[in-house]
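Researcher: We plan to redesign the surface later, but first we want a full-length starting point. Tokens attached.
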């Protein structure tokens, strides 16, 4: 990997004077595309125009050639699929960074989605990650505080782990089953979870490089946002469903961006479920408690939750410093819309302040924070005048209902 090309890529991301070169990002390979996807929801860091440009990587990628994809299909398809498939369209219906989706028809008339890994990208991807990790370690020796504030190695590890999972499509089927089971456990207490669906997977037709599932024709949230057809209430419904997994169970979809969710106005369908992340309930519920307290303007309680996230207890002087800093950071914040001050921007400032005051966050914190960034990015895109933090009371209601139904599972 040519490090200087990556440095230019990062400069173009964060320097407002530099323009993004989409073709150059694609030319850097899968790792660069995955980093671009991660920052596509960070409008607070890169600005609205670059965020809009990078969102194309959520759903729009160059397809493999027809000859290549036909060859990969024949290599990957189990005998049962070859026997039962009537026909399939070689032109993809959707193309992403790792795979592409084709429509097919079984002999019984059922329409299916056939997802194929586009190429053997694992070896090149692993080599790129190794080189970038080596460079980051040198940078962190010079700027050690960067590790505590931005955790670039943690971010890279998260991208590496999630992408390697994606490259084995069997993990997607397993992830869908795992999340569906967790949904079913909570639905009797939280009926809105019934709005979440997962495509049925034909396991007999699937393998490491091919996944066959029922065809779903609902539009993606990304396309609905682009057409102005996804509103704030829709975003809150999605936020609330994902919040159950994230805050109450500590097991959640680790890459829930607007290209991975379909929506028909009633139900949400989660796609690309390979990346199921886990985090301690202490961490997840502590972050929820802090968000609810901030939304209700109870700053002292929010500080207690934030300090409680530290792996080592904070001395009284550090708690006092944290309290003073939080008062300054959140002065005048109540009532601000996400276009004025995004939740991501405010949380970034909160994390930086906490680190300066001695809070040692668990390594599991990055996937949780990434999920909040993704959801905040959706709200900023569809409802820039929303006051998101004040609506976290819905999570509080779900927490209380879930705690009442399963008190033994909620004690932290």
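Model: Full-length starting sequence:
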């Amino acid at each position: 990997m040519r490090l200087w090309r990556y440095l230019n890529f990062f400069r173009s991301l964060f320097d407002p004077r530099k323009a993004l070169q989409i073709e150059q990002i694609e030319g850097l390979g899968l790792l660069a595309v995955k980093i671009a996807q991660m920052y596509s929801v960070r409008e607070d860091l890169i600005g609205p125009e670059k965020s809009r440009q990078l969102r194309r990587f959520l759903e729009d990628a160059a397809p493999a050639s027809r000859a290549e994809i036909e060859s990969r299909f024949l290599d990957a398809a189990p005998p049962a699929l070859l026997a039962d498939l009537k026909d399939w369209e070689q032109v993809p219906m959707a193309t992403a960074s790792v795979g592409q989706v084709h429509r097919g028809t079984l002999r019984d008339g059922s329409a299916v989605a056939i997802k194929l890994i586009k190429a053997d990208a694992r070896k090149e991807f692993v080599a790129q990650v190794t080189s970038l990790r080596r460079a980051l370690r040198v940078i962190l020796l010079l700027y050690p505080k960067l590790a505590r504030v931005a955790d670039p190695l943690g971010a890279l590890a998260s991208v590496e782990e999630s992408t390697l999972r994606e490259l084995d499509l069997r993990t997607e089927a397993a992830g869908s089953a795992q999340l569906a089971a967790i949904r079913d456990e909570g639905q009797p207490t939280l009926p809105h979870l019934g709005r979440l669906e997962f495509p049925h997977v034909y396991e007999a037709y699937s393998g490491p490089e091919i996944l066959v599932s029922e065809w779903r024709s609902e539009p993606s949230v990304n396309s609905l946002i682009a057409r102005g057809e996804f509103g704030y209430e829709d975003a809150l419904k999605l936020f609330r469903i994902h919040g159950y997994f994230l805050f109450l169970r500590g097991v959640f979809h680790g890459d829930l961006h607007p290209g991975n969710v379909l929506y028909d106005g009633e139900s949400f369908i989660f796609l690309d479920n390979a990346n199921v992340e886990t985090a301690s309930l202490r961490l997840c519920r502590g972050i929820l408690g802090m968000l609810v307290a901030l939304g209700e303007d109870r700053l002292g309680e929010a500080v207690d939750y934030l300090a409680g996230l530290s792996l080592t207890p904070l001395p009284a002087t550090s708690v006092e410093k944290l309290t003073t800093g939080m008062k300054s950071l959140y002065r005048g914040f109540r009532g601000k819309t996400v276009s004025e001050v995004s939740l991501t921007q405010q949380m970034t400032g909160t994390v930086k302040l906490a680190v300066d005051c001695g809070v040692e966050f668990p390594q599991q914190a990055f996937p949780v924070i990434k999920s909040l960034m993704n959801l905040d990015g959706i709200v900023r895109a569809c409802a820039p005048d929303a006051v998101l933090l004040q609506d976290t009371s819905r999570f509080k209601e779900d927490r209380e209902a879930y705690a009442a139904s399963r008190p033994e599972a909620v004690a932290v």
